[in-house]
Amino acid sequence: MKAQGMRIYPARRINLAILGNKRIAILGYGSQGRAQALNLRDSGFEPIIGLPTGSRSRQRAFSDKFRIKTPSDAVKDADIVAVLAPDHVHGELFANDIGKAIHPGQIFIFAHALSVHFKLIEQPTGIDFLLVAPHAPGLRMRERFMRGGSVSAFIGKTDKSSEKSLRFAAAYAKAIGCNHRALIVSSFTDEAIGDIFGEQAVLCGGLAGLLKAGYKTLVKSGIPPHNAYLECIYQLDLIVDLIKRYGIGGMYERISLTARYGSTRAENKIINAQSEKAMGELLKGIKSGKFVKELLKNSKKGVAAKPARAANTYQQQIDCLARRFSSISDQ
Ligand SMILES: NC(=O)c1ccc[n+]([C@@H]2O[C@H](COP(=O)([O-])OP(=O)(O)OC[C@H]3O[C@@H](n4cnc5c(N)ncnc54)[C@H](OP(=O)(O)O)[C@@H]3O)[C@@H](O)[C@H]2O)c1
Q: Using CA atoms, how far apart are residues 225 and 314, in angstroms rounded to an integer?
């Protein structure tokens, strides 16, 4: 089946040479910043890293032998700027720091559309805003790239950006290690909403909730914690692997009859109309901007960055078991 409406950027049109004479700046040197900078270097481009003078990341960029400037100096001298600082600081970064350094003809690349879609920043006239959103954390991108692999990504441009600018997104994506055969064209709106919802409802939040609930149910019934961990959590990657290769139906075909019979009947008992209603509420809050408003408010108060680790004793047990089993098994 063809994915309806999916547009893949044609690999034959990607031309790395268009980046050849461009000065590239990367703002931020965290998960994405470091991976993109190192992959760019290995693709033949040498970015400048823009970090505030007090940034903890300066030492790492320095050890990796990159030139480091303040964000405003890095932007002043750049043709292409990848904005890889945390999403919630983009507004202040543009307003207070780099706003005056921006000049017409520049290209700004975002790894997530949040700050543009929710108008934390306004696109200045004469500047192209592009999206290159890799579908993986930076560490995984770097590992894959070093093994000759790649990850898929969304690429896109805002309506105000010039027609020809999308080719820069495609070239940049290839240079940072995104698969040139899997550059999927997306709008900023679809990426912003889809990404925030996907991570909250399914990939991170929903999954963490499901795993903890399964573990807790078994442990409370008297099953030893390590059994509960191994049965409900440890084998997750094997199932995800089957789903990614063969789909959900293909996964069901490849597990035991007992597992298939029981699981297909349990599926709707666990995730049902009530969960879908909760997902709908979540989505409403994301689309309306309520979530982003809350994120900004709590980031300012320092609450948003609080580690999730101390959340509850069941999670602490799981984290402890994860460390234990990852140190004794290479599965
Ligand atoms: N991580 C992922 O898996 C992933 C995947 C796809 C897209 N993205 C997107 O990539 C972007 C970066 O996310 P990330 O996860 O890489 O962030 P991160 O790991 O938290 O790193 C952020 C970096 O930005 C620096 N920084 C903080 N304030 C800054 C400022 N005012 N100016 C310049 N640099 C500043 C931080 O320095 P300090 O050390 O001083 O804090 C740090 O080096 C976000 O838009 C995110 O949504 C992330």
A: 9
Position 133 scores a pLDDT of 98
- Cβ contacts of 8-14, under 8 Å, gap ≥ 24: 8/181, 8/182, 8/183, 8/184, 8/185, 9/155, 9/166, 9/170, 9/183, 9/184, 9/185, 11/180, 11/181, 11/183, 13/167, 13/170, 14/167, 14/170, 14/171, 14/174, 14/180, 14/183
Q: Is the CB of 57 under 6 A from ligand 1?
A: yes
Residues recognised as catalytic: 112
Distance separating alpha carbons of residues 322 and 318, to the nearest angstrom: 6
Confidence (pLDDT) at 312: 73
- To test the pocket of ligand 1, the residue of 51, 140, 199 to mutate (highest count of ligand atoms within 8 Å of its CB) is 51
Mean pLDDT of the chain: 95
Structure tokens at 111: 């790894």
In the reported structure, the alpha carbon of residue 147 is separated from the centroid of ligand 1 by a whole-number distance in angstroms of 24
To test the pocket of ligand 1, the residue of 26, 29, 32 to mutate (highest count of ligand atoms within 8 Å of its CB) is 32
pLDDT of residue 302: 77
Complete domains list, the chain, with CATH: 11-186 (3.40.50.720), 196-328 (no CATH)
The per-residue pLDDT for 270 is 95
Query: pLDDT per residue over 129-148, tens digit each?
Result: 999 999 999 999 999 999 99
pLDDT for 42 equals 97
What residue's CA is closest to ligand 1, atom 27? 85
Residues of the chain predicted below pLDDT 70: 1-2, 305-311, 331
